[in-house]
Design goal:
This protein is α+β, with helices and mostly antiparallel strands. 22% of the residues lie in helices and 32% in strands. The chain is built from 7 helices and 14 strands. The strands form 4 sheets. It has a 5-stranded antiparallel sheet. Strands 5-8-6-7 form a 4-stranded antiparallel sheet. A 3-stranded parallel sheet has the order 2-1-3, covered by helices on one side. Strand 1, helix 1 and strand 2 form a beta-alpha-beta unit. Helix 1 crosses helix 7. It is globular.
């Protein structure tokens, strides 16, 4: 019986691309409904997932899917050589008291806009799941000249895409890009030094960062592969990473158990 890719109800271009890649390799594809509990798959069918975290939290236990994600404090735990800026992971309530300007973002989800805020008081107030105890990342304000999204599988680049130039959407395949050698070299250095701090299937954003007169390659952030836009990357190769990051709980590798979403 064919494996199954389950998509969250929210439609997206990436979801459609991954669904097409899944069908090409003989997988079934189903779009889950917004209401109701998903029907467990037939015995022997391995189920995988692509979609948002909030829907996943409420539904995926019934499908037996385990989600892998980077630790919330991963970026601020990296050596300065890979971040090029000072990053802290603090409770939202503490961030509200910070002077600005400062860049603030949720560590992994999209619960509020990642942006430059005039000061901590400009951050969103408690709403929905966004409470004062929720962790957020704060860092100094820098400029990103070009940014790339890398799909990593077992520490190796499976596929990738440029996605922004000076903060503007600018997708293009990593393959053949003038920056490809530099991107690959930086990611290679990072995975050699810190590869064990990431899930075996993960999306990594890196970029050419400008801080004053200094330009250097640095990590933007790490993301859940099962909730990341592929931009201009190869969907079939990106699917390999998604399947590793959001598949049957019984298939989670020992080295990935600490990255399993609660």
């Amino acid at each position: 019986m064919a494996d199954l890719l389950a998509l969250a109800p929210h439609r997206s271009t990436t979801g459609a691309l991954l669904a097409g890649a899944a069908r090409e390799r003989g997988m079934g594809v189903v779009v889950l409904t917004r209401d109701g509990i998903p029907t467990p798959p037939p015995h022997g069918v391995r189920t995988y997932y692509y979609g948002g975290p909030y829907f996943a939290d409420s539904a995926l236990g019934h499908l037996g899917v385990a989600l892998l994600e980077p630790a919330a404090g991963w970026l601020d735990s990296l050596p300065y050589a890979f971040t090029g800026r000072h990053v802290r992971c603090v409770p939202l309530g503490e961030a509200r008291r910070a002077p600005g300007p400062l860049f603030v973002k949720p560590p992994t989800d999209k619960s509020f806009p990642a942006a430059v805020y005039a000061d901590g008081e400009a951050l969103p107030g408690p709403v929905g799941r966004l409470r004062d105890e929720a962790l957020v990342q704060i860092s100094e304000v820098v400029a990103w000249v070009r940014e790339f999204r890398i799909h990593l599988l077992d520490g190796e680049i499976r596929t990738g895409s440029r996605y922004a130039t000076f903060g503007r959407l600018d997708p293009a395949p990593l393959a053949g890009d003038p920056d490809e050698p530099a991107v690959r070299d930086f990611v290679r250095q990072l995975t050699r030094a810190c590869g064990d701090t990431l899930p075996s299937g993960v999306v990594l954003d890196v970029g050419l960062m400008r801080n004053g007169d200094d330009e250097r390659w640095a990590v933007v952030e790490a993301n859940m592969a099962w909730f990341s836009n592929v931009y201009a990357a190869d969907p079939a190769r990106a699917l390999d990473v998604v399947l590793r990051s959001a598949g049957p709980g019984t298939s989670v590798r020992a080295r990935d158990t600490r990255f399993r979403r609660a």
